[in-house]
Amino acid sequence: MHRKALSQAVLVSGLAALGGLASTAVATPPGPGPVPVIAPDGPDRGARQPQAAVDAEGRIFVAFGRGNTVRCAVSTDGGKTFEVATVGSVDSLALGMRRGPRVAATGRAVVVTAIGGKEGGGRDGDLLAWRSADGGRTWSGPARANAVDGSAREGLHGMAAGPEGRVFCTWLDLRGGKTELYGARSEDGGTTWEPDVLVYRSPAGSVCECCHPSAAYAPDGMLYVMWRNQLHGSRDLYLTSSTDGGETFGPAEKLGLGTWPLDACPMDGGALAAGPGGRVQTVWMRDGAMFAARPGEAERPLGGGIQGWTALGPGGGYSVWLERRPGRLLALIPEGPAPLTLAERANDPVVAAAPGGRGPVVAVWEANAEEGGILSLVLDPPAGDAAR
């Protein structure tokens, strides 16, 4: 497992240099406060690395790891309450620093993926997928997505749900001795997986070795994949797309106009979202500062911070990030000119919206490390929801 990683101190040094929105964020979101997905004093106290998905019916799914077990919490009442079920277990689950389960909701099923092996610690690891056809109450699987044993052992991956039950996974792959980007698609809601394909190979040999990749489907079926590259001495974010659901991919395109000369991995892969009309939104970190960017356009500074995530919901883009790790959790929503403070101490947040940019939009994060637990907050519920 590659560990030439950039230190927290170096990342945080970028905060003061940028200043801007994050340093002045004092507003708090309207309505009720965060809801416990996992209570700090319950049986899942050790829950880590939550990921969220929202289906077309507005149900919220939160997958997380606890030890070597994958679990999933489900809310059918707009994020007011959650019920938890076990998805599956492995001998050694990749968990921490954005390693952990991913969750996607299709019209046919809910799919949870995770990377696990017999030994762990970067010595082995396969990308495994479980499937639920009853809204997260019971689970079948796992099925393996990577074709070569142990090639997903870096433990970092992303997943997206598309039209007609299609699911796509992308991961950092080590089958060739270098870190490359591979992917695999399922046409039946995660039951079976097509042979995996090379998404991108860096001319320099490896992409950034410890930053997770991301994937997103647009409503028309266009698939996008984003990753941090290692090219020309810099660690910048790149994007590629597929018009055939993940069988083939087009040329890689650098995001933003600036660059980050760096000979280390910042362990921060950002996130992307895709909406109607070809809209693609990405959020990512460069040198301790957060940016939003669309393909072919200049990046827009959001403020100092790290570990960003984004989703397209009602009215536009919703983004969350941390001032530091762990630290203050900030959110930028369409109707707000400045970030909101969601929590004073949080870790590794995500945000998710229903397909096609509908509500609810929900942020989920690891709570205060000393207290444990996972919290959520609905940022934009469906129209007419009294919880607003």
UniProtKB/TrEMBL annotation:
- Record keywords: Iron included? no
- Give the protein's recorded name: Exo-alpha-sialidase
Organism annotation: Tautonia sociabilis
What CDD domains does the annotation carry?
Answer: Sialidase_non-viral
Q: Which residues form the signal peptide?
A: 1-27
Question: What are the start and end residues of every segment in region (Disordered)?
Answer: 29-50
Q: Which UniProt keywords apply?
A: Signal
Stretches assigned to the Sialidase domain: 117-255
Taxonomic lineage of this organism? Bacteria, Pseudomonadati, Planctomycetota, Planctomycetia, Isosphaerales
